[in-house]
Design brief:
4-stranded antiparallel beta sheet, 13 helices
Length: 429
Amino acid sequence: SIMLNSITDGLLCCLMGKTTNAVGPLDSVESSNGYSFMEVKPGRILRVRHSMPNRPAPEGPEETQPGGPERGTVHCKRKITVYRNGQLVIENLGDAVRSEILHCQNSSGEPNSTVELELSDLAGQAPAQGPAGTPGCGTREAAAAPGKRRKRKPKKIINIDCKKQITSCKGTHSDVVLFFIHGVGGSLDIWKEQLDFFTKLGYEVVAPDLAGHGCSSAPQIAAAYTFYALAEDIRAVFKRYAKKRNILIGHSYGVSFCTFLAHEYPDLVHKVIMINGGGPTALEPSLCSIFNMPTCVLHCLSPCLAWSFLKAGFARQGAKEKQLLKEGNAFNVSSFVLRAMMSGQYWPEGDEVYHAELAVPVLLVHGMHDKFVPVEEDQRMAEILLIAFLKVIDEGSHMVMMECPETVNTLLHEFILWEPETPAGDGQG
């Protein structure tokens, strides 16, 4: 009887959008509205929204589109040097630099550039940046290395040398899939406006609920919510639905899983969109955090936490925002899961070097009123990444995709359709 109720609750959750965290051990239950349950490992079940459009006739293979097979091809070449004193030096040696690919307004126009940074001392730096809403450009030139450098012994040298073909991804292309990954406390429901928008345009979209969130199963063991456990869940979802050109869209903590997949599958991840994801630093749980309190205490504080999230996560705190918070499941998770999620954010590999190794183009979206993620952190991310746009939305906060859906949808769509105007000689050697 208990098992039957569990399965019934899970199905109702899937069909009606309820959030119960009670899902029976189902192999795969698909409903007519695109929701299904996916068992990523025995007893660990995620709710997934998968919308597959009905295309009349797929457009021809991507390679035959106007511009030829070489269009959008860029030479990504950079040298990453880590010194024993903790200094990180990035030298861009190929075609894929901001000044050429993104046609920045404030770039120096130099073909190659060097950025010199302290690995753990970047937060206070505000790199040179164009006006809000333009690519975060010119940062490497602003931090150019001095002409003469004293000889130092490097701890590690990493050379990136590859060619990337960056192409426009249209809703009519059958080899394109958009993956949406939410952050702590949320659910796939936070993406409602984006999922509806891109589905109507003909895109295939996939959005999971993380374990313990939305309608996914909620194991009562803290180890189920470590970064690595969640990353393997997302890997399973990705491997099940991925096609040739996959675009990852992450919000907050969800950005870390996008970065992980982009690093693991460089040939499958075509573009990445990071919404209020923060700086390119290794994840480490805070020792002095309210989330280290016992679960029972957190449970008593949950109304205060919800109000604090509303104030910090939304630019305004009116009736509309309260409705979004409640109906959109922006912050609706058990105290146990919340505590385990916060203490499980340990990912030492995801440091500045890890991010600097990415050759995938990235769109960074930042809500200016975000009290969780300062704009300097996203500027810092733009500085480290090889190919990056930084777009700042003045009227948005941490939940910018819920607050300003039209603006966010337009930005995302423009980036998904974007491909570099490869100047003559680019991609040649």
